[in-house]
Design goal:
About 20% of the residues are buried. The chain has about 100 residues and is an all-alpha fold. Helices cover about 50% and strands about 0% of the residues. It has a domain of about 70 residues: Orthogonal Bundle (434 Repressor (Amino-terminal Domain)), CATH 1.10.260.40.
Length: about 100
């Protein structure tokens, strides 16, 4: 079976909460409490996101994109990349039957 794992700079992408903290909250000197109020969410919810214990949902992506002038896709893509790499790191206790093989060129 071939290895489809990603190598290179995105081999270990950061959690979106880490990006939020380092590139947005800290430079803007926003506390978790103040940012949570501005986003219309609880402090606990934002704290869990910033600390990597909660994922970016589509609703959260919309809020973050509006608050920080980004796109929802940015936040969702970061979450998807993070989740995929975490899944690749886990031990696979299953086998998969291949149903399709590319035809030789």
């Amino acid at each position: 079976m071939e290895d489809n794992r990603v190598e290179g700079p995105m081999k270990n992408p950061p959690h979106p909460g880490q990006v939020l903290k380092g590139l947005y909250l800290e430079p803007l000197e926003l506390t978790v409490t103040d940012a949570a109020k501005g986003l219309g969410i609880t402090r606990k919810t934002l704290s869990q996101l910033v600390n990597g214990r909660q994922s970016v949902t589509p609703d959260m992506a919309l809020r973050l994109s509006e608050a920080f002038d980004t796109t929802p896709q940015l936040w969702l893509n970061m979450q998807q990349n993070f989740d995929l790499r975490q899944a690749e790191k886990k031990e696979r206790n299953y086998t998969v039957q291949r149903f399709w093989t590319a035809l030789p060129a």
